Every structure is written in C-alpha cells, then in structure tokens.
Amino acid sequence: MLIGTTKREKVWIGGIGGVISIVFILVSQIIKLQTGFFESRSLEASEAVGNWVVIGYFVLGLYLLVIINYRIIKTALKMKSRSRWLLIITDVIVTVAYLIIGGFGLFIVAFTYFPFAP
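Above: the chain's sequence. Below: its structure in token form.
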C-alpha cells in the first residue's frame, strides 16, 4: 500500500501501521504469558486472549480499510471526471467486499478463541 506514495505518507502510514502491529503482537504475547495460554489451553486463558485478538482484529482491519480507501480516492481525485466516478464506484465495491470478507474473518477468529458449541 505504500508504493507510489510520498515520503511523508510512507512515514505516517507505515509508522502508524508498524506501531499498531507491534503493540498488538506484544500485548497478545503478554496476555498469553499471564493467563498460562502456553502451558495448558483452558477456557479462561483462551477467552482472555480472544478478547484482545478481536479488538486487535477490528483496529487492524479498520486501519487497512482506511488506507485502501485513501489510496483509491487519492488516485481518483487526480483523474478526469468519467474515470474518477468509475474509480469511486470501484472503491465502494471494494469496501463492501472488504466488509463481507472481514466479517467472515471475524467469525473465524471468534470461533478460534470462544467456544460456541458444547
């Protein structure tokens, strides 16, 4: 997502993404160590880690969606009228598809950490 951006955009976009990713990884590992997730996989340990992972999934997913929309709309604003509207319509389609796929991914993440069935 950083190809073709200015140096300032690369610093901001990459820096924010890097910080969010590092915080997610570090905190999830700390929670796993504190709950005993590595020693024995219990229901309590799994739910504690799952609470953090679901929040991280939302934050990282929202960050990626904002970056995708930013890049497409920035490109659209540089184009002529007909191409601009085509790219904006493409952005709407990509956003809807992203939300549907993201919802399915959230189901998989939640199913991994939270017991739904007996």
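The chain has a mean pLDDT of 86.
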